[in-house]
Structure formats: structure tokens, C-alpha cells
TrEMBL record:
Record GO terms (molecular function): acyltransferase activity, transferring groups other than amino-acyl groups
Name of the featured protein: Acetyltransferase (GNAT) family protein
Record keywords: Acyltransferase, Transferase
Organism: Paraburkholderia terricola
Cited InterPro entries: Acyl_CoA_acyltransferase, Bact_Acetyltransf, GNAT_dom
Domain N-acetyltransferase: 16-166
Top-level taxonomic group: Bacteria
PROSITE patterns from the UniProt entry: GNAT
Length: 177
């Protein structure tokens, strides 16, 4: 039987869980993220506590955690940038290998998107490294498409990443589905 997957917004006291998931994601999938494992390992525990506390209450940025049978098994960040008009992003998405292909990634993206839409977003953006074919196919399967915007990966300037976007369905579109 498939394990049951649930998603909840991070709580203010989950700095240690956040640190555990971030380091696990950077260790397992270093090609997928802007930060490095060394960055995460050298940061002190207090910085993860501070991030958890902010993401638990902020209207601009948050983290959602995926659980399988109550155990943390993945995460995603949702935030608005500082441009005018501000743009909504999902990033730092990771699902533990043991629970991949069970729709946990989809649940994380949809939950983060709903939170952003609730704050007024009409489009959800995601930067994906061109070399990360799995993530590219994953986002395409969820209805994300190219914006035509590209940039160099800060961690590896010889590589490129592309900006994808998915439109938030309007209430009338959603009720027709
Ligand atoms: C990308 C990732 C989050 C997907 O998580 P997941 O829980 O396995 O994905 P889901 O089960 O929700 O997949 C939803 C759909 O996306 C597509 N998909 C998912 N993984 C895929 C893959 N490896 N190749 C092709 N399509 C894929 C499928 O269409 C899938 O639906 P299906 O299983 O019915 O075919 C996960 O593979 C991961 O953590 N990878 C490493 C980190 C990473 O690359 N993060 C993204 C940074 S931009």
C-alpha cells in the first residue's frame, strides 16, 4: 500500500527539521539547487531557527513540508520577489527518493501555488536548471511552460537555467474542472 502523504506549512519551532531536510536535499541532489551542501553545513542552527520562525508567519515567504506517515520527507519554498509588479516563485523543491513518483512533488507544488494565489498571485514561476531533465519533465507534467527567460546558474556559471511559469486558474476555470 502507498504511504499517505500530507503537506503542512512549517512551524516556528521546526528549525531542526528544516535543517535536516535542506542538508538531505543538498546532499542527495546538489545539481538542483543554488546553494551548496557546504553552505548549509556551515550555517549555524540559529539561522535555521530564524528562517523557520519567519516562514511560519510571513506573508511574503514560506516553506511547506511533506510528510509520509508523519515523517518529514520533502519540502518546497514559496515566495514573492521584490520586482514591481511582484512575481511569485516556488523553489528549493525536494522529495526524498524513497517516496518519489507518489505525487508528493505535485502536492508540494500545488499547496505552495495555492498559498501564493491566496496572497494574490496569478502566475507561479520556477527556475529549473536545463540539465535537470527530471525536474523539467516534472514541471511540464504539472502544466508549467517556458517564459523564454534564461540565466546562468550562479553555483555553476557554465550551466543555464530556464524560468517556467504556470497560470493560476481563475475561479470559473477551476469550477469547470
Ligand atoms: C522533481 C521531484 C520533486 C519530483 O517529485 P515526485 O514526488 O517524484 O513527483 P510526483 O510523483 O509528484 O510526479 C508528478 C508527475 O511529474 C512527472 N515526473 C515526476 N518525476 C519525473 C521524472 N523523474 N521524469 C519524468 N517525469 C517525472 C510525472 O508525470 C509524474 O506523474 P506520474 O507519476 O503520474 O507519471 C523529485 O524527483 C526530486 O526531489 N528531485 C530532486 C530535486 C529536484 O530536482 N528538485 C527540483 C529543483 S528545480
Amino acid at each position: 500500500m502507498s504511504p499517505s502523504l500530507t503537506v503542512r506549512r512549517i512551524a516556528a519551532d521546526q528549525g531542526a527539521v528544516f535543517r535536516e531536510l535542506r542538508t538531505a536535499s543538498l546532499r542527495e541532489a546538489p545539481y538542483a539547487f543554488g546553494a551548496t551542501l557546504e553552505d548549509a553545513l556551515s550555517a549555524d542552527a540559529a539561522s535555521f531557527d530564524a528562517t523557520a520562525a519567519e516562514h511560519a508567519v510571513s506573508l511574503r515567504i514560506t516553506t511547506f513540508i511533506l510528510y509520509t506517515e508523519g515523517h518529514p520527507a520533502g519540502l518546497i519554498e514559496a515566495h514573492f520577489d521584490d520586482t514591481t509588479p511582484r512575481r511569485a516563485f516556488v523553489c528549493e523543491l525536494w522529495v526524498a527518493p524513497a517516496v518519489r513518483h507518489l505525487r508528493g512533488g505535485e502536492l508540494l507544488v500545488d499547496t505552495a501555488s495555492a498559498w501564493l494565489a491566496n496572497q494574490g498571485a496569478t502566475e507561479i514561476h520556477a527556475w529549473v536548471a536545463d540539465a535537470n531533465r527530471n525536474a523539467m519533465r516534472f514541471y511540464e507534467a504539472l502544466g508549467f511552460g517556458p517564459t523564454g527567460e534564461h540565466r546562468r546558474v550562479a553555483r555553476a556559471p557554465e550551466q543555464a537555467e530556464s524560468l517556467l511559469v504556470r497560470h493560476v486558474p481563475t475561479t470559473s476555470q477551476a469550477s469547470q474542472q
